[in-house]
Amino acid sequence: MAKKKFVVGCFDDEEILFPAVKKVRTAGYKIQDVYTPFPVHGLDHALGMRETSLHTAGFIYGITGTTTALSGISWILTADWPLNIGGKPHFALPAWIPITFELTVLFAAVGMVLTFCYLCQLAPFIKKHHFHPRATDDLFVMVIECTDKTNTGDLEAFLKGAGAVEVNTQVAEAGWWLGRYDKNEMPFETKTVAA
Amino acid sequence: MHLKYESQLREPLVYGTKTYHDVTEDIVRPIEAKPSKLWYIGFYIAVALLLFGVYALYRDVTYGIGQWNLNKTIGWGWDITNFVWWVGIGHAGTLISAILLLFRQGWRTGVNRAAEAMTIFAVMCAGQFPIWHMGRVWMAFFVLPYANTRGPLWVNFNSPLLWDVFAISTYFTVSLLFWYSGLLPDLATVRDRAKTKLRKHLYGIASFGWTGSTKHWQRHESLSLVLAGLSTPLVLSVHTIVSFDFATSVIPGWHTTIFPPYFVAGAVFSGFAMVQSLMIIVRKVFGMEDYVTIGHIEAMNKVIVTTGSIVGVAYLTELFMGWYSQSKYEGYTFWYSRANLFSPYGWSYWGMMACNVISPQIFWFKKMRRNLFVTFFMSVIVNIGMWFERFVIIVTSLYRDYLPSSWATYYSPTIWEIGFYLGTFGLFFTCFFLFAKYFPVIAIAEIKYVLKTSGENFKETVGNIETKSVEEFAHEYAH
Fold first, then answer.
1. How confident is the model at residue B462 (pLDDT cuts 50, 70, 90)?
2. Of A156, B49, B232, B415, which residue is the least packed, with the fewest Cβ within 10 Å?
3. Reduced to 3 states, what is the DSSP secondary structure of residue A7?
4. Looking at the predicted structure, is the pLDDT value of residue A194 above 50?
5. What is the full DSSP assignment across A71-83?
6. Global pTM value
7. CA distance A186 to chain B (A)
8. Residue of B27, B33, B19, B32 whose CA lies nearest to B186
């Protein structure tokens, strides 16, 4: 796959990171991603990402579970093998509620976790490019994708000015996990590159 | 600029002057260090117990469960008592991680990881009892509803015992997913610090290639929130369904309508007691007093005294209904078989009362809630009491039924019944020792998330904005 060049700026405080994100975006640079050691609330909005619809998927998995349980049990106990249990009706809906509920939860949870892993491309044995080993420790790592016109030296100086404690330029393989979501979700106005 | 603010009235959740890096260091240190002698001793004792349990089960399979002292009248004894006991213990983890997440209780971050692990191991132990109780354990798969060659003869979906199969297996699966999805970022932290190649490789596999991307965090947050929302009714449903095993029967002492809430409260009660026992040891051994603070211990003790009192009200309600219903069978069970100290099993009822209702009242005193020794002692007492509760419910209701000719003689377990129980302790602690050694016992990312609002040094620098006048505050935040 094609290799791409990225300028990496590391910040050590989320309170410096936020203004920096704003500066970088208004300057017209395209932020590839920000890697953080913990969920920083509001950062997704600052980066211009849309909300995730994972919970909608969860709802759909949930009702799939509900219908699976209800249709399965009613077919089994009324059509396939109706058992006479103490002369009670075959279609014993109240008695099926516990299992229906459990299957709803099971389908929703399993489905959501699998979807989460798929969307984020998380699985055992997957190798990804890590821009900075301390991104999972105490650094907030901003990664900016370079175009042909980008002057990496200038950009590095710009990030330093915005408060980055460490800057460098890295070449990484633009795998399928990089830059998949930002196309539609981070609409940038084309501005002249500052600095 | 502070992004979030927490009242100064609240105790800090993290003590000491900590940076994000210090948090990582403190929590990952035990994983990277060589295990202490104490760890080895504990681990070997746990493995020995586990092996004894395996031998007891080998005998069960070879000679049948006739070698347990169960009989026709007391068909459920220690095995189902232990099952309900372990399931109950398995309730605290999900309660802490799910319900307290929805209620935005910040203190859950210090204890949720270990509590969830404890939940998973406890449910694993619980599951053993009904499975081996089947006797012909190689036919255990008959509980699964699949199109089989026996008709297909389906399982009975109207039976509470089958509801239990679904409830326990769903609970186990969802707890496992919840726990592991929360672990991914922390395992990535361990991976990125790893010095040796093997460690980097293994934690790399375990962390699924987590990078910490903002979009991933956004999805992760959504996932945690929805899983918490799903787990909240789930955790309540599991012990409700366990109580249905009893409540839908026609045995005096079992068919009471208060069982579901009473069982759930009891489960939370015993689960929190187990979390206390484990966390008091873990924080001491790993030096994590800054993260699992006295404030955490106190908060859990408040839950214990609340749920203990709920359980107490349930016991008294049962006694009242035993009299008020004027049913002689109910009255006999509650007032003779249980509440009469001099009846054959009266000791177990009063043991239960002393451990579950009377002794936890000590936690009305703040000094006692914040005393580690008292807390540890009480946590053990509560778990003994909750074991008695299940024993009381099962055995005192069964041993004398409607027909005096089938009344049982005194039931006491054989060494193999006890051995099986000890074996599950072995399984539980073997798993817990391995977890404590190889996994971050405290959720690193979540601690970092609350550090700047609830860390001691950060709270001091932010100062008390509540003393400002409203106008001043509004003016400052208007822009």
1. low
2. B415
3. strand
4. no
5. HHHHIIIIII---
6. 0.90
7. 12
8. B27
Does any domain span residue A78? yes
Closest among A63, A87, A91 to A77, alpha carbons compared: A91
Residue at A195 is within a domain: no
A44 shares a domain with A10: yes
Same domain, A20 and A113: no
B149-171 average pLDDT score: 90
What residue spans of B360-414 are helical by DSSP H? 366-369, 372-391, 397-398
Residue A190: pLDDT band by 50, 70, 90 thresholds?
very low
> Is the CB of residue A163 less than 8 Å away from at least one CB of chain B?
no
Q: Considering its fold, how many domains does chain A have in total?
A: 2
Identify the band that residue B283 occupies on the pLDDT scale cut at 50, 70 and 90: confident
Residue of B213, B245, B446 for testing the chain A interface, max A β-carbons within 10 Å: B213
**What tokens does B288 get?**
């994590």
Quote the pLDDT of residue B467: 65
- Which residue in the block uniquely carries the two structure tokens 């010095």? B195
Q: Provide the 3-class DSSP secondary structure of residue A34.
A: strand
**Least confident stretch, A176-190, B224-238, B324-338:** A176-190
List CB contacts (< 8 A) between A15 and chain B. 1-3
| Global ipTM | 0.89
Query: What's residue B349's pLDDT?
Result: 93
**Contact between chains at A136 and B188 (C-beta distance less than 8 A):** yes
Q: B148 or A3: whose pLDDT is higher?
A: B148
- A114–B contact, CB cutoff 8 A: no
Residue A99 sits in the same domain as residue A79 = yes
Mean pLDDT in residue range B43-64: 94
Phi, psi of B358 (to 5 degrees): -80, -55
Q: Which domain holds residue A82?
A: 54-119
Domain boundary (A96, A119, A142) is at A119
Which residues of chain B does A33 touch, with a Cβ-Cβ cutoff of 8 Å?
213-215
Which of A84, A119, A154 lies at the terminal end of a domain, its last residue?
Answer: A119
Mean pLDDT of A16-29: 87
Any idea what DSSP says for residue A145?
E
Q: Do residue A23 and residue A112 come from a single domain?
A: no
Which has more pLDDT, B389 or A128? B389
Which residue in the block uniquely carries the two structure tokens 């955490």?
Answer: B296
pLDDT confidence tier of residue B465, bands split at 50, 70 and 90:
low
Domain spans in chain B, listed from the N-terminal domain onward: 20-137+169-477
Selection from A17, A118, A102, A32 nearest residue B234 by Cα: A102
From residue B411, alpha-carbon distances to A100, B56, B252, B408, B416 in Å are 38, 19, 19, 8, 14
CA A53 to chain centre: 10
